[in-house]
Amino acid sequence: MPFVYLLRHAKALKHGDTDHARKLSEKGESQALALSTWLVQSGVTFDQVIVSHSARTMETLELLDLDSKISIEPKAYNASAQTLGEFIRESGAQESVLVIAHNPGVSDLCQRAGYGLELRTGELVILECPTSISEFSPETCDVVGNY
Q1: Which residue from 37, 30, 29, 139 is spatially nearest to 81, judged by alpha carbons?
Q2: Which residues contact 129 (CB under 8 A, 6 or more apart)?
Q3: Cα first-last separation, the chain
Q4: Most buried pick, 6, 77, 90, 145, via CB within 10 A?
Q5: If you average pLDDT over residues 132-140, what whole number do you get?
């Protein structure tokens, strides 16, 4: 079965020239590096990574050091759950896709799959889906883990 991984970007600085330009804090850098280690140790790989083009999501992606096809999506910046779902369905991924984006969209998508909490910065939720990723619907997926 295919997997969808939903990641709220790592912790950002409180201030920047604009919200879009806020970079990761030291804590955020540590969060992303720890997640990178966990992904390697767990043997997790992705067919496709979809990432918002904000500074904090791009830095999170860089620190994860993934060997995956990457799609930078400007419309993923503060996107709704519905928009993120469209990106997932259109990703072309077969086995696994990672989305690195923002709240409230990421949390809303996870909650539609039954995850009861709002995602903290740097939190990853893993969904296992009964159909192909091109038919992704969070309501049909099971939450099978988080980091």
Answers
A1: 139
A2: 1, 2, 3, 4, 136, 140, 141
A3: 20
A4: 6
A5: 98
